[in-house]
C-alpha cells in the first residue's frame, strides 16, 4: 500500500529529488514490512538481514539521489532488494506449508513470480509500450497475493477451529461422565462413547431413542412428567435421579444434569447434559438408612448370613418386603442388590403355594425347610424349571414376635438332573457316532455311486434320443433312466443332513449383500490373501435370510483361508444361470429352473477325491485338533438345501477349490412354464475333427458320444501322452483340441503348446471344474482363452464347440 501511494504521488507531482527519494524509500519499507509480517504470520521469529539491508539501501538511495547520480543507480538495487524479499517470502511460505494448505502453496509461487517480475521491471519500464503492461502484471500479482493471504488466513482459522473441535471431542470422550444431547422431542442426537461402559449399549444403539425407552415402565412414567414440566419452562436441571436398565438387564441409578440450548435465532433445540453413575452411592445411602432400632435384627441377620454363606440369602420383613439381599441372590436374579429393598417378594416372583408357606412361618414362628423344590423365574424363562433347597428362618424380638425372615436358597438343579443329563449325553454321543458312521459310509459309497449314476443316466438319455419311442426298447431305457433318477435321489437323501433352523426370508440383491460384506471378509481372511470380487450385472433376486448369506460366505472364506499357505487369492463371483432339462439330465441332483449362481474359489491346497467325499458330513474336518469343528461346510450344505438351492464343489490336490452354489431365482413360479426349455436353440454340429483329452475315462466316453452325435470326428485320448501320439499319427487336419486343464504329468495348456508344431492351425477348448478367472490367476491358462466349465450338458458342449470353431481366434 505504501509503495503504490508513493507511485501515485510520483506520477501526479513533478519528478524531483523528494518524490524520487520517497518513492524508493517506500518500496524498501514495503519490502521489509512484508517480509517481517510474513514471518510473523507463519509463526517464525523476524529475521534481521532485511532490516539491515533495507537500512543500508535506504542510505544509499538518499545519498545517490542527493549527489545527482543516475536514477538507475538507485532503481536497480532497490528493485533487486524488492525481488529478493519477494522470492524469500515465497520460499518461506512454500517451506512451511503443511499438506492440504493449498492457498499457502499458491501464494508462495505467486510471490516467487512477483519477485521474478521485479527483477526485469527496472530494465523494461523505460520501454513505453511495456510499462503499462508491466504495471498491470504487477497489480494482478499483488491483488492475487492479497486474496491468497486472505484465503491463508481462513485456512489457518479453519485449522484452529478443527483443532478446537478435536480438543472438545477428546475431552468429551475422556470424561468419566456420560455426555449426551437430545432434541426438542427428547430423542438422543449425540452420546459419548462412555455409554457403552456405563449401560452396555453402543452409541449407535442409543441414538434415535429416548431415555424413557431405557427405563422400567414405572420409572419412565414418573420421569416423563417431570421432564415435561422442566422442558416446558426451558429450565436447566441438576441432580435429577433416574433408573436405567443396563443392556444385560441390571438396573443402574444415574444422576443427570442438563441445560437447554438454542440456535442462532433463539429457537429452542433441546438439552445437553451429562449422567453420572451413582449406583454405589445409592447403595451406601440405603445401607446408612438402617436405624439403630434394628441393630438387634441386623446382628441376627449377620448371624444367619454367617451360617449360610454358601447359599443365596435374603432378609424379609413380616410382610415379605425385601430389606436386604446378598450378592449371590442378586446375581441369581440378575439384578444389583440395591434393586430389591422395599419391593414385595411376591410381586417379583408370584407363587401362591410359596406365599402360604411364608405366611405359615410368620404365624407359627416355626422354621421351614424343603429340598429340590421346583421354581421358574418369570423374567428368566430361558432357564426353564429350576430346583432349589430352601429354608425360612423366623427372626423374633424379646417378646417372641416375628420381626422378619431369613430366606435362604441353594440351587440343586444340576444334582437333580445329573443322571438325566448323563443319559441324554450318552444318547447324543451314540447318535453323533451313528451319524458320523452313516456319513462316512454314505461318503464312501455315494462318491463312486454318483459317478456311475451320471454315466448310467447319460447313456440312458443318449439311448432314448436314438430309440424310436414306439419300440419296446424305448420303454426299457426309460425305466432304466427313472430307476437311475430314483437311485440318485436316494443317494442325495442319504447325504442330506438337513439343517432345522428358523429363518426370515426376504427378497435380496445378492450383489448388494456381498458388496457390504467385503471389508469384513477381507479382515477375516487377512492381508496376505487377495479378495477378488466379480459381480454380474443385472443379477436376479433371491429370497432367503440375509444371515444365511453371511454364514455361507464366512464359512467358505474361512475354509479358503485355511487352505492357503502364505500369500494367495480368494475369488467371489455371481451370475445368472438357466438349468434346463437337458442340462439337469447330465448333472445328478440338479433341478430345472432359473438360478442365481454364487461361486467362491481359492488357490489353496485343494482336496483329493476322498476328502471331497466327506466335506459335508457333520464333524468331518481335515484341520488339526482344536482348529476346526467340522460343521462349517455341513452348515453351508444345510442352508443351501433349506433354500431349495444346489451346491457343486470342484477341487484337485494342490490346485485349489471352487464352490458353485445355485440359489433359486425369486418368483420363478410366476414366470411362464418351461421358460428354461423354451430358451433352448438348435445348435448345428459339424464335420470337423476334434482331439478330445480327458483323464476320467467315463467322462471321456460320454463326451466322445456327445460330440459324435453332433457329426464331429472324435479322436479320444485318456492321457496327454496318448494325445500327442494320436496327433502325430493322424494324417489329416485336427481342427480343435478339447482338453481337460488339470491332468497327471501335464496340464492342458502345456499340451496345447506341444501340439502347435504338429498342427499350427488347431484351435483350443479347455475344460475344467474351475472357473476361468481362477485358472487364469493360477497361471495355467491365459485370460481370454476358450473355456467351458464342468459339469456341462450336451447343449452347452455343442454350443461352445461350434462357437470356438467358428471364431477366428485359436485360443
Structure description:
There is one protein chain. The protein is α+β, with helices and mostly antiparallel strands and 811 residues long. Helix content is 50%, strand content 19%. The chain is built from 27 helices and 22 strands. It has a 5-stranded antiparallel beta sheet with strand order 2-1-5-4-3, sandwiched between helices. A 5-stranded antiparallel beta sheet has the order 7-6-10-9-8, sandwiched between helices. Strand 4 and strand 5 form a beta hairpin. It is flat. Mean pLDDT is 78; it is low at 492-502 and 668-682.
The major sheet is characterized as: 5 strands, antiparallel
Low-confidence stretches are 492-502, 668-682
Strand order of the main beta sheet, please? 2-1-5-4-3
Oligomer: single chain
Number of strands: 22
- Helix/strand class: alpha+beta
**Total number of helices:** 27
* Integer-rounded radius of gyration: 44 Å
Globular, elongated, flat, extended or rod-shaped: what is the shape? flat
Instruction: Give the termini distance in whole angstroms.
Output: 76 Å
| Beta-strand share of residues | 15-25%
Average residue pLDDT: 78
How much helix is in the residues?
A: 40-55%
Helix and strand arrangement:
Elements: H1 2-12, H2 17-41, H3 49-66, H4 72-95, H5 102-124, H6 131-173, E1 178-183, E2 188-191, H7 194-199, H8 203-206, H9 217-232, E3 237-245, E4 251-262, E5 268-277, H10 279-288, H11 295-307, E6 312-316, E7 322-325, H12 327-333, H13 345-348, H14 352-364, E8 368-375, E9 386-396, E10 402-411, H15 413-466, H16 472-495, E11 506-508, H17 510-525, E12 529-534, E13 542-544, H18 546-563, E14 568-579, H19 581-585, E15 593-602, H20 609-612, H21 632-642, E16 646-651, E17 657-664, H22 675-678, E18 689-693, H23 697-709, E19 713-717, H24 720-729, E20 736-740, H25 748-755, E21 763-768, H26 772-778, E22 787-789, H27 794-806
Parallel strand pairs: 12-14, 18-19, 18-20, 20-21, 21-22
Antiparallel strand pairs: 1-2, 1-5, 3-4, 4-5, 6-7, 6-10, 8-9, 9-10, 11-13, 14-15, 15-17, 16-17
Helix pairs in contact: 1-2, 2-3, 2-4, 3-4, 4-5, 5-6, 15-16, 15-23, 17-18, 18-21, 24-25
